Amino acid sequence: MDQIMQKLQAEGNSTRQWSGIWDEVKTKTVSYVTDPEIWTGLLLAIIKIVCIYIAARIITKIANKALQHMMVEREKSPLKFDTRRTKTIGKLIGNIVTYVVNFIMILMILNQFGVSLAPVLAGAGVVGLAVGFGAQSLVKDVITGFFIIFEDQFAVGDVIQIGTYRGTVEEIGLRVTRIRSWTGEEFIIPNGTITQVTNFSINNSLAVVDVMVSHETDIDVAMRLLERTVKEYYEKDTNMVKEPELLGVQMLGASEVTLRVIVECKPVTQYAVARKLNAEIKRAFREHGLEMPYPRLVTYHKTERAE
User: Fold this and answer.
1) What is the mean pLDDT of the chain?
2) Do residues 64 and 95 lie in contact, with contact meaning Cβ atoms separated by under 8 Å?
3) 63-117, pLDDT tens digit by residue?
4) Long-range contacts of the stretch 92-95 (C-beta < 8 A, 24+)
5) Core-most of 196, 207, 225, 307, by most CB within 10 Å?
6) Confidence of residue 263 (pLDDT cuts 50, 70, 90)
C-alpha cells in the first residue's frame, strides 16, 4: 500500500512539474508577444528592409538612365565611335550594375536580421572557389563572353549566325547571348558553346538578281532595258552603295536565257533590294512588251508511209 501511495505521489509531483513548465513557457510567450519593444524593433526592421529595397531599385534605374544618357551623348559627339560596340558595352555595364546593387541589397537585408556579414563574405568566397572548380561550364561561359566583347566579334543589333541559329543580337551577357530570328523566336545561347560565328552586319552585302527572258527576245534590247532600269532605280534607293552592274548572260536554259545583275548594298539589305529590283524590272519589261519565259512543249507527229 505504501508503494502505491509513493507512486501516486510521484506521478502527482511530475504532473505539477510539467504544469509548472508549461505555465512558465506560456507566460514567457505571452510576455514576448505582448512586449512593445519587440514589435517596435520588428516594425523598424521591416521599414528598413522596404527602404533598402526601394533605394536599390531607384539606384538601378538612375544608373541605367545615366548609362543611356552617356550612350546618346557619345553618339552625338564629333568623335565617331562604333555605335555597335557602344550599345554592347552599355548593356553589359547595366547588367553588372544591377548584379552589384542586388548583391549589396541582400547583404544589407541580412544585416537587419542580425546576420554578421564577415562570415557571409568569407563563405561567399569559399562558395565562389567551389563554383570555380565545380561549374567549369559556367566559368567557360563567362570567359568566352568576356572575349566576345573584348574582341568585338559581334555587337547588339548585328545580324549573326551561330550554328543553325540566325537572327539579330538582342543582348550579350557574360554568360549567355540572346538573338532574335526574323520570325520572332528568341534563342538563348550559352557563350561557352559558341565556337563559330558568321557576322552579316560588318561589311556591305551583295544583291544578286537573275532575270530570265525567252529565247525569242532580242538579248541586246533586253540587256539595254535591264541596265537602264536598274540604274534609274539606283537613284531612288538609299540602301544601294554602288551603281548596279549588269554582268550579262549567266545561263542558257531549255526555255529561258538568264541575265544577271549584281549590286553592292548596305549590310543585311540585299534581300529587300533584290525584291524591289525584281518588281521594277517586271514593270519595265511589261511596259516595253518583253515577255518572261514559260515552259513550252513541241510535239512532232511522224507519219508512216503505207506500202
Assistant:
1) 78
2) no
3) 878 777 766 655 555 544 556 666 666 677 777 788 888 888 887 887 777 777 6
4) 92/149, 92/172, 92/173, 92/174, 93/67, 94/63, 94/64, 94/67, 95/173, 95/174
5) 207
6) very high
CA neighbours closer than 13 Å in the CB half-sphere of residue 229: 22
Measure the CA angle with vertex 51, ends 49 and 52; round to 5°: 65
197-199 and 186-190 strand pairing:
unpaired
The residues, ordered by sequence, that sit 6+ positions from 154 with a Cβ below 8 Å of its Cβ are: 148, 160, 169, 172, 197, 199, 201
Question: Band of the pLDDT at 260, cuts 50, 70, 90?
Answer: very high
Domains, the chain, in order of start with CATH, read 37-134 (1.10.287.1260), 153-199 (2.30.30.60), 205-287 (3.30.70.100)
Q: Which helix (H) or strand (E) holds 305?
A: none
- pLDDT per position as a tens digit, 114-132: 777 677 666 666 666 655 5
Give the angle 142-146-148 at the CA atoms, nearest 5°. 115
* Nearest residue to 257 via CA among 303, 223, 233: 223
Residue 238 has a pLDDT of 86
Q: Could you tell me how far CA 197 lies from the centroid of its own chain? A: 15
CB 269 within 8 A of CB 205: yes
Distance CA 179, CA 177 (A): 7
